[in-house]
Design goal:
Layout: E1 21-22, E2 26-27, E3 30-32, E4 38-43, E5 50-59, H1 64-76, E6 81-92, H2 94-104, E7 109-113, H3 118-127, E8 134-136
Parallel strand pairs: 5-6, 6-7, 7-8
Antiparallel strand pairs: 1-2, 3-4, 4-5
Helix pairs in contact: 1-2
Amino acid sequence: MTGNRKAGSGRNAPDPGAIPEVGGGRPHPVYGAKSGHARVRRESTGSPATWLLSASGEFDVDTIDCLRDALTAARKAHAERILLDLADVVFGDSTFLHELVRAHRGPSRLVLVGPLPGQLRRLFEMTGTYRLFHITLDGDGTPAPAPDAEPPTAVPPDASAVDPA
């Protein structure tokens, strides 16, 4: 037998470029960077109007395509809301920020889900874009505290019972 066929790659061998499937045979899209270490995975939300995208890795000019592809797919599917989980993003540069701003201005409502890694928080703070985005800690809409927000002061349960002496 001749050709480029590798040993052990028979009819049941998985296609290395295939999209992995979740239970029930439904595709579970994963958008991977052509180079570098970045990927975006679409998670199930139970609603076609809401897309949950979980990003991980390092996003820069060489890896941004996977995020752009995932956001474009959500817009083409007419998603009303895109939840973008950034908790596992270890690096994002101006290219990454530009893509987030572009998505924010799109027809779908973009919600960033954290907690935001320190590097991303600093990127948003330094560029003045922190307040541009709707950022939540768990995707339910509860906003994350702004970086310059003052922590609430602790008040004893019964302040009148505290003896100043």
